[in-house]
Amino acid sequence: MRTRLPVPLPSRAPRGYSVVGLLVFVAAVAALAIFPQFVKKPYVLHMGVLLFLAVIQGQAWNVVGGYAGQYSVGHAAYFGVGAYVTMMLLEVNKIAPWWGVWAAMAASVLLSLVIGSITFRLRGPYFVLASISVAEIIRLATLYFKDLTRGAEGFLLGEIPTMNLLGNEILFIGKRPFYFVGLGLAVVAVAVNWVVQHSKLGYYFQAIREDQDAAHSLGINLSFYKNVALSISAALTALAGGFYAMFVKFIDPNTVFGLDVSVQIVLLCIIGGIGTIIGPVIGAVVLVPLSEILRNPKGLVQVGVLPPDSGFVTFVERYLSNAHLLVYGILVVLVILFAPEGVLGVIRRAATRWGRRPQDVPPAAAKA
Fold first, then answer.
1. Which of 196, 233, 251, 333 gives 20 to 30 Å between its CA and that of 14?
2. Would residue 359 count as lying in a domain?
3. pTM for this one?
4. Alpha-carbon distance 130 to 116, whole Å?
């Protein structure tokens, strides 16, 4: 009599799913959620909001640049559209930002489809050049059409209406409400990247990034999937722009459409690690504190890290107050020369060497 062996059920978990990774992520989000209970200084929460904003921006660019391999240096266009549409709907039409941001995301997606439908049919650096040109054209148009956009004067937000969430009224006063909103949006951006990375859509993106001709020979519609990647990226970037406008309460063309905004978004991924979920987070952790220290070194005095008469504060204010772009450039050169996979690649190599046992080292390497 033949005994039938039990057949294992197929795993329903997505490919690449890690229980440990999920638990670490949930624990990190929970720790960040209770962090404001132990912090009394507004500057610390201010840094947290900027950190979450940078994470959203980096995760947004990572979809099209990291997974699909289409490098955009004009994401300020989507960021600015998100900021302006959200702000104008609130100031002019009295539409709450949590509704207006959906219109901002739709406008950015339409803009991305116009740009992508033209440039993605071509090979070469046309998309990079077009992305820079479009951002600059929109910035100049915003300055020119003063009746609609108020030109260089920009928009100054009076107040944000009270939000009623499940019977609870939320007043957007101080840093704390923006901290929690920023944390929630950052979690959404990370979740979108996770879904993209572990879905068939993400595999199509990565196939296009590795070899476009091979991907095309397998039946992947290059133009269509590049546009899909850019649309997702544009929507998330517009979400970040709307959040930025509500947090800062002032926008003008140079602050949201400037080339430095696009460069900073790209650097978040290059320095942290392109094509990974954790890379843009690491990039934000590196760049945001560095940028804030260079712009406002007295913040370290406010949180008690340095004494009021610190020579470091005086040195930064005198010589490095406007040098954050110079420091960014030096960082990029160092990363390209010594860590092409970003800070995440350095951490992974260090962890591999640390975990390697002496008997695992090949004899030839040991003799060398």
1. 233
2. no
3. 0.88
4. 9
